[in-house]
Design brief:
The structure is a homodimer. Chain A is of the alpha/beta class and about 270 residues long. Chain A has two domains: about 150 residues, 3-Layer(aba) Sandwich (Rossmann fold), CATH 3.40.50.720; about 120 residues, N-(1-d-carboxylethyl)-l-norvaline Dehydrogenase, domain 2 (Orthogonal Bundle). Chain A has eleven helices and eight strands. Chain A has an eight-stranded mixed β-sheet with strand order 3-2-1-4-5-6-7-8, with helices on both faces. Chain A is elongated and about 65 Å long. The interface between A and B is large, with 56 and 56 residues. Chains A, B: Pfam families: DUF1932, F420_oxidored. Chains A, B: This is NAD(P)-dependent oxidoreductase. Chains A, B: InterPro entries: 6-PGluconate_DH-like_C_sf, 6PGD_dom2, HIBADH-related_NP60_sf, NAD(P)-bd_dom_sf, P5C_Rdtase_cat_N, Pgluconate_DH_NAD-bd_C.
């Protein structure tokens, strides 16, 4: 199986490790890419080609793994002759996936989404679209792909909805526990909420608050895509306020150069800056 | 131990059962109260007195268990001579508790909050204030009181913060799963979120969405108190949007005369009305 990546950052290089171990051949084009991507591709012993059109001639499956803003251009860059399977695995809303895949004139198309951090062992990849089984062949080459529907937009949609929930909870925790901390009842509140939310609540809540302090700016950006996805169906008032809360946090904390050790340290930094 | 209730609704009548079984004497004033309260007091064989001032002369501890709007008047109604312990157990913000307790000129004062439904066996009651141990004597008479701090406002504050979190999660679930339902991926989304949130996630999420459909109007009101409590420390953007989401739901669903059987039924009713 010959697999080509458009973009060779963290997602591509991490998936490449599994693919190579399991006997696939991996290709990418590094012309015009960053030094970071070039070095990664060299380090992983990936075959390089001069252009994305050349890539399309070489491989059976193309995975687009670029920055969200580049997703549509990536699909356009392979030209109109590709007859294999094109997979959009970018962190973008269903509408953007649909726009990107319109550039694939002859090939098969798949919507895919990585659930959670790509660095986790055997990270789960959701796939949708009637051609998703073509992509799922890569399960024989070390990936962990689950087909969840026959429509383009479902896999990327689930990723957006998961973000809507988990990022909303993070923002809610910050708002609630900041007030608790100021009232001197934060420890007690973990117990009281933990009584109904389960024994993992405290650990998970603390981890989310610390992580929010460090990633508020990136999460604020991600919430814009979430709002777009939800607004097709309703007025996403929670998604809007989640973005607003991350904005309030990021405004003061964007200069952090490491994760705070505790959530109280994060709150203190937030107050001081 | 002689315990007096101001107000004799669900909270008072439920706590009375435990108190009487465990050897306390219970008093209340039913003059000018609703037939519902009169009947409850009669049914539970509670001693009645003609006025709240008379109540204050009879008992060691007074528990104020009235509607939120009546909390301050309740404290004023016992006059200025009460030397026992006055406990505000109402569902109100810390600021309202403080205002109410200012009317108790000579007695001891305690802030208390019922966590969860009063109908649960041995429901947890949090108490704060330096006189909280006086109230906690009722643990010898069947109650389940936990002292969580020495300041008035901490117990009622924790109740508000618990509401901030649990009601926020409910609103977030509604917003997220309504979009999932419209995209045809709601079942899959339970699995994907459940992977990180734990095995109870689906059951708990469904129960919260059904409950939100039925209680949206009351919850919207409760979120106003939560906003007041949080706004002493920060701009409560999540609490505002949680109120707004309950408002969106209540506008269409306020006429429900029973809980929907499923969350999909709730979403269907919401779309149709």
């Amino acid at each position: 199986m010959k697999v080509g990546f458009i973009g060779f950052g963290e997602v591509a290089s991490t998936l490449t490790i599994e693919l190579l171990i399991n006997g696939a051949e991996v290709f990418t084009c590094v012309e015009g890419r960053s030094d970071f991507s070039r070095n990664l591709a060299q380090e992983k012993n990936v075959n390089t080609v001069p252009t994305n059109e050349a890539l399309a001639q070489k491989v059976d499956i193309i995975l687009s793994a670029v920055t969200p803003a580049a997703a549509i251009d990536a699909a356009a860059s392979i030209g109109t002759n590709f007859k294999g399977t094109y997979v959009d695995i970018n962190n973008v809303s269903p509408e953007v996936v649909k726009s990107a895949l319109q550039h694939i004139k002859q090939g098969k198309v798949v919507d895919a989404a990585i659930i959670g951090s790509v660095n986790r062992k055997k990270v789960q990849i959701l796939a949708s679209g009637k051609d998703a089984p073509e992509f799922a062949q890569l399960n024989d080459f070390g990936l962990n792909i689950k087909i969840i529907g026959t429509e383009i937009g479902q896999a990327s949609g689930i990723k957006m909805l998961r973000s809507s929930y988990t990022k909303g909870v993070s923002a809610l925790l910050w708002e609630t526990f900041y007030a608790a901390y100021k009232m001197g009842v934060d420890e007690e509140l973990f117990d009281v909420i933990g009584n109904t939310e389960g024994s993992e609540f405290k650990k998970s809540a603390i981890s989310r608050m610390i992580s929010t302090a460090f990633h508020a700016s990136r999460r604020q950006e991600e919430m814009k895509e979430v709002q777009l996805a939800l607004s097709l169906f309703e007025d996403p008032v929670l998604a809007k306020s989640t973005e607003r809360k991350f904005h309030q946090i990021a405004q003061k904390l964007k200069r952090l150069d490491k994760k705070p050790d505790t959530y109280r340290e994060a709150f203190l930094l937030w107050e001081k800056l």
